[in-house]
Amino acid sequence: MKFFIDTANLEEIKEAQALGILDGVTTNPSLMAKEGIKGKKNIYRHYQAICAIVDDNVSAEVIATDYAGMIKEGTELAALDSKIVVKVPLIEDGIKAIKYFSEKGIRTNATLVFSAGQALLAAKAGATYVSPFVGRLDDISEDGMALIEQIITIFDNYGFATEVLAASIRHTMHIIECAEMGADVATCPLKAIKGLLNHPLTDIGLAKFLSDYRKSQE
Ligand code: G3P
């Protein structure tokens, strides 16, 4: 399973990259705004700064919602760096744009996916990644992880190359369940990735090993 970090914060991206387990980054307009990045020029520069930190897979989202606008913006984003994956919202013009980019060899991430039908259309259009939002479904008392399982089944049935990228991951159990189900990617906050490290028996065991070592050296 690939690990992406779901942030536009450079320090967090550097910290996750330093762990040696990071495969990519996902951003969205809200995450960019959270970092206080204003204006197209600065936003594009910020994407380039992210690309300089990681090895590949930097999702950069288009703001346009019409076909022509998405093509223009997505083409500009893809030209910033070969690591860019153009993130496109799952709307009618978005599907057309995904098809266009797929034929041009530009990688895409279909975002704001909340149903199996939307995921199926994205796969048919040739999306590289499809991003079902697990946490936001859980927020409205729907089962986000069940959607991941459903999409994996559908993609497996037909051998779609589109990868299932579980997004809106909120905690460590989401990550574990994604791994159990065979999701291709989980994009997670740094806190959830680092949360996987924690086990009290590891801390207790390490303290005991170190204290026994110290005693043996007295
Ligand atoms: O990248 C999009 C997605 O992961 C958003 O997550 O926590 O805002 O629902 P969240």
Q: State the oligomer.
A: single chain
Radius of gyration: 19 Å
The set of bound ligands, ions and cofactors reads: SN-glycerol-3-phosphate
Tell me the number of helical segments per DSSP (H or I, 4 or more residues long). 11
Query: What portion of residues belong to β-strands?
Result: 15-25%
Largest sheet, spatial ordering of strands: 1-2-3-4-5-6-7-8
Largest sheet: 8 strands, parallel, barrel
N-C termini distance: 46 Å
Number of strands: 8
- Roughly what percent helix? 55-70%
Shape: globular
Please, what is the average pLDDT?
Answer: 98
Structural class: alpha/beta
Elements, N to C (H/E):
EHEHHEHEHEHEHHEHEHH
Describe the structure.
This protein has helices at residues 10-19, 29-34, 40-53, 67-80, 92-104, 116-125, 134-139, 144-158, 172-181, 190-195, 200-216, and strands at residues 2-6, 24-26, 58-61, 84-89, 108-113, 129-132, 163-166, 185-188. The chain has 218 residues and is of the alpha/beta class. It is globular. The model has no long low-confidence stretch (mean pLDDT 98). The protein binds SN-glycerol-3-phosphate. SN-glycerol-3-phosphate binds at residues 6, 26, 28, 133, 135-136, 167-168, 187. SN-glycerol-3-phosphate is lined by residues 6, 26, 28, 133, 135-136, 167-168, 187.
Write a brief caption for the model.
By secondary structure, the protein is an alpha/beta fold. Helices cover 56% and strands 17% of the residues.
Which features does this protein show?
single chain, 218 residues, alpha/beta, 8 strands, 56% helix, binds SN-glycerol-3-phosphate
